[in-house]
Q: What sequence folds into this?
């Protein structure tokens, strides 16, 4: 994508602002390092943001660490433990992490003014700092609010050697002796998942999944995972359906690395009990246009999760100017400002009540949706993400709270 | 611009005679040939002449430089082609003269610096020299005419960009909120009483400050929430005053109401601070017309900086725009009206529109 393609969406002056800030960083080499070039949210955002940084005159580069599959099994356990789940992590696991880090330090050919390290897998590369210097940033994309203490205590000595850390939401951060920045993730308005679609495309997708557009559609897009509370979604829908004629779409996929997801899908199908107003859709991964179409066809979009990361599906829904009812967990309250850009709920009954409020007051629902779209336009699009990264790079050399360039 | 050497070489080539061969000037087959006086360069009197670019985008070399008598020069650079001429020569069909401030359909706007038979040069509000073809000139939205009163000092626009820093501090009840409010740096007070204006600048009415929203939504204390929401940042000269007022309200409330409510886990108040970066932009205004033109084009971060941020550093408690209008342009009344606008009650785009409307009236 060309940076100028974003001007009609965020305004020419917002794109000019990016160029103005980038003017202070011309030629800087920013070396990004993570664990994979494809798959997962980190790779997705790097794929989009690196070309834009390059267009702005930043020499942004991207390398990955190399490791045996066993290393990723260990880091998967780290990931779960940092999210608060109990994992059985052995001394051998920690040794494997350290040895793999050492091998990468020996073989990784990297150079740059700023080393931008993403997530725990490559966090140990900070040990190179003593030898090569440079500025080092650790970008944590995961929720560290309730980490397993043992795993956190293992990682903390690495993290505290960085010049700065970046978290996606205030609650995800830890108290650290280094500067911590708050940078939310973002969505790309020009991607297949978010770009405008013609009514023909939307109707075709509805026909494909056997959904009639003859009554309000309430949708939740999420993996089949207990933490997304699919059964709670059905229960809330049934409460609403008893008095208002509407239909539910629960669209999501199963994750190959999550054996539980098939079980959840079976349970959800059983709970739906062949109710003709409940559509349980198993959508293959990569079907971005279909997800986009289903969101655009919806009257209300839900995100009734019990635990969440940042939940960018909420920003996706808001960008389509849809009224959203979502749980106040993870990064959702940053996106849904209660009664301003959507409605927050705390349980099944609250979700049902909020849906009824919106169905009964279409003009209120429309107002919330429009506010939500503007909220995303200014705070959760990739252009804001770019601006934050540019300012982050500048902040490494200017740690003060007020910097006045002349 | 031609160098003095190039002009001298062109002058020698012309042998002190007008080189114009334009048929629209009725020079058929032979150049104009009017005798010129070296010292009369740029002068409308007898022997007056000037150097002209044959092709606007053809560079500043000798091959693109022609020496024209004053009549031909004015006719080419300042001429207003009639419909008849424009039919033949596609000349500008709108009345434009050097020094006019014009606004085009493309959104570009600026002052006309040169006019040739097929194009017009304008210096845009961000200081870029742009050549506009006749076909584009036909799509002028507005020609505002010649310069209005020049300011004593030009107004340079700056842009404010903010990055958020986490402090690691949080509060789960009112006592912890006050304790932290007393010790956090000003940049934290700034963030929670100002940043929401930038993040929610599209909403009207603006939501309340972060403290008021948290007390209402997470502690369920609507009475205190209302009192905190009523703290208007516009009525304070500095952040210390805002901090003191917030603390006083909460402490007074605590002395009257035993509030032991605690926020649910994950809904605590997280203290965040703003790191502010101020950048000079290429936008400079020398008069009111240019000022309005820039206002239409600057980022919201720039508008925010000059209206909100500047008040906090001004000893006179005025925003940058008011100060410039009063001190550099002598527009006392307009400056005072803008100073009295409560910017906290507008969306930023609404504020931009209101300022433009107000200034347009002032120009008239």
A:
């Amino acid at each position: 994508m060309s940076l100028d393609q974003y001007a009609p969406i965020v305004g020419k002056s917002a794109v000019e602002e990016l160029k103005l800030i980038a003017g202070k960083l011309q030629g800087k080499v920013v070396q990004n390092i993570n664990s994979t070039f494809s798959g997962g949210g980190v790779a997705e955002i790097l794929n989009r943001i690196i070309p834009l940084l390059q267009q702005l005159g930043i020499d942004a580069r991207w390398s990955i660490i190399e490791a045996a599959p066993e290393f990723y099994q260990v880091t998967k356990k780290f990931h779960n433990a940092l999210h608060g789940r109990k994992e059985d992590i052995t001394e051998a696991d920690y040794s494997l992490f350290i040895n793999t880090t050492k091998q990468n330090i020996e073989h990784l050919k990297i150079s740059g003014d700023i080393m931008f390290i993403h997530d725990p897998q490559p966090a140990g590369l900070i040990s190179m700092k003593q030898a090569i210097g440079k500025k080092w940033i650790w970008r944590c994309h995961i929720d560290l609010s309730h980490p397993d203490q043992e795993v956190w205590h293992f990682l903390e000595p690495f993290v505290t050697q960085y010049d700065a850390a970046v978290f996606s939401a205030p609650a995800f951060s830890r108290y650290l002796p280094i500067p911590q920045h708050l940078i939310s993730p973002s969505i790309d308005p020009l991607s297949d998942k978010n770009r405008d679609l013609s009514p023909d495309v939307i109707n075709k997708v509805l026909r494909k999944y056997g959904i009639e557009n003859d009554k309000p559609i309430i949708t939740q897009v999420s993996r089949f995972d207990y933490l997304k509370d699919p059964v709670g979604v059905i229960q809330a829908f049934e409460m609403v359906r008893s008095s208002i004629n509407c239909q539910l779409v629960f669209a999501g996929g199963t994750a190959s690395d999550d054996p539980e997801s098939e079980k959840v899908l079976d349970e959800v199908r059983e709970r739906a009990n062949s109710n003709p107003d409940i559509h349980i859709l198993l959508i293959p991964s990569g079907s971005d246009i279909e997800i986009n179409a289903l969101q655009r066809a919806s009257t209300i979009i839900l995100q009734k999760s019990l635990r969440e990361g940042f939940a960018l599906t909420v920003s996706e829904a808001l960008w389509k100017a849809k009224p959203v009812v979502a749980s106040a967990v993870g990064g959702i309250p940053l996106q849904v400002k209660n009664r301003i850009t959507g409605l927050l709920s705390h349980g099944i009954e609250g979700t049902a009540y909020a849906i009824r409020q919106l169905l009964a007051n279409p003009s209120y629902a429309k107002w919330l949706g429009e506010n939500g779209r503007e909220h995303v336009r200014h705070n959760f699009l990739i252009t804001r993400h770019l601006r934050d990264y540019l300012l982050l790079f500048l902040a490494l050399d200017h740690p003060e709270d007020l910097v006045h360039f002349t | 611009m031609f160098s003095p050497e190039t002009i001298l070489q062109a002058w020698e080539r012309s042998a002190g005679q007008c080189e114009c061969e334009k048929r629209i000037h009725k020079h058929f087959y032979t150049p104009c040939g009017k005798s010129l006086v070296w010292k009369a360069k740029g002068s409308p009197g007898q022997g007056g002449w000037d150097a002209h670019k044959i092709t606007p985008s053809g560079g500043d070399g000798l091959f693109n430089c022609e020496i024209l008598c004053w009549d031909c020069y004015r006719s080419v650079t300042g001429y207003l082609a009639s419909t008849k001429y424009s039919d033949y020569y596609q000349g500008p069909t709108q009345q434009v003269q050097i020094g006019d401030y014009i606004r085009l359909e493309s959104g570009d706007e600026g002052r006309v610096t040169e006019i040739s038979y097929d194009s017009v040069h304008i210096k845009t509000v961000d200081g870029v020299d742009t050549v506009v073809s006749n076909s584009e000139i036909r799509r002028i939205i507005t020609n505002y005419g010649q310069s209005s009163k020049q300011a004593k000092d030009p107004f340079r626009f700056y842009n404010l960009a903010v990055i958020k820093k986490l402090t690691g501090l949080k509060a789960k009840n009112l006592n912890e909120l006050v304790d932290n409010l007393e010790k956090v740096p000003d940049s934290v007070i700034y963030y929670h009483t100002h940043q929401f204006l930038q993040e929610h600048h599209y909403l009207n009415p603006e939501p309340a400050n972060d403290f008021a929203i948290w007390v209402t939504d997470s502690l369920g204390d609507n009475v205190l929430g209302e009192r905190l929401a009523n703290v208007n940042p516009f009525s304070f000269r500095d952040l210390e005053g805002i901090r003191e007022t917030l603390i006083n309200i909460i402490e007074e409330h605590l002395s009257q109401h035993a509030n032991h409510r605690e926020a649910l886990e994950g809904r605590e108040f997280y203290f965040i601070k703003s790191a502010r970066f101020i950048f000079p932009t290429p936008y400079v205004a020398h008069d009111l017309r240019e000022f309005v033109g820039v206002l239409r084009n600057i980022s919201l971060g720039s508008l925010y900086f000059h209206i909100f941020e500047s008040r906090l550093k001004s000893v006179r408690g005025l925003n940058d725009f008011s100060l410039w209008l009063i001190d550099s342009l002598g527009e006392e009344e307009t400056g005072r009206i803008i100073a009295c606008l409560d910017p906290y009650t507008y969306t930023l785009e609404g504020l931009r529109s209101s300022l433009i409307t107000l200034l347009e009236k002032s120009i008239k």
Q: What stands out?
A: Chain A touches chain B through 49 residues (CB under 8 Å). Residues 199-379 of chain A form a domain with the Rossmann fold fold (CATH 3.40.50.2000). Chain A has two domains: 3-186+381-397, 199-379. Residues 6 and 322 of chain A are 21 Å apart (CA to CA).
